[in-house]
Amino acid sequence: MKNETCTKLLKSLLKPGYTAASYAIRINNEIVAADSVGVIDQIDNKPVTNECTYNVCSISKMFCAMAVMQLVEKGKMNLEDKVYTLLPEFWMPDERYKDITVRMCLDHSSGLPGTQWKHFSLTEVGKVDYYKEVLHYFSKSYLKDDPGAYSVYCNDGFTLAEMVVAKVSGMKYEDYIMEN
């Protein structure tokens, strides 16, 4: 498969006025085709390259869920485990936080107050400890409702699940994802 064919296909799928898109196709651990189209900087019309990075947003939730399920399959944790028992540094002044399970983090029914947006979309890794900031935010927050009462989209539940994966696996979350 040639890059030209893939790039032509990608361009045909993009809506007019798109900003940028990239692809990479890997077979047997070897990248066989990769390209980028569009601009990374619309003001200076700077073209995107294969070295540019993107915030993958909610697409990353499937990787987190898979990591959790791998650890469940290995018997290292259960979906009904309470998050605070797996992650002792997680604390909220609202005692109901002790009822939040790993499953509730994944199905958005934790009752958490919402997403702590500060530094949510990092462009430079290493300058900010996002997990520490989220835990600090929780230490001053109260739940919206009882855990399990209803589901409402909340990124911070997945952030807690990432921290659980790191704690249970004994690896940095990013390392666990790359390795598994």
Characterize this entry briefly.
The chain has 180 residues and is an alpha+beta fold. It contains seven helices and three strands; from the N terminus they run H-E-E-E-H-H-H-H-H-H.
Relevant terms:
single chain; 180 residues; alpha+beta; 3-stranded antiparallel β-sheet; 7 helices
Structure, described:
With 180 residues, the protein is of the alpha+beta class. The chain is built from seven helices and three strands. It has a three-stranded antiparallel sheet, with helices on one face. A hairpin with a 2-residue loop joins strand 1 (20-27) and strand 2 (30-41). Helix 2 (60-73) crosses helix 6. The radius of gyration is 19 Å and the shape is elongated. The two termini are 27 Å apart.
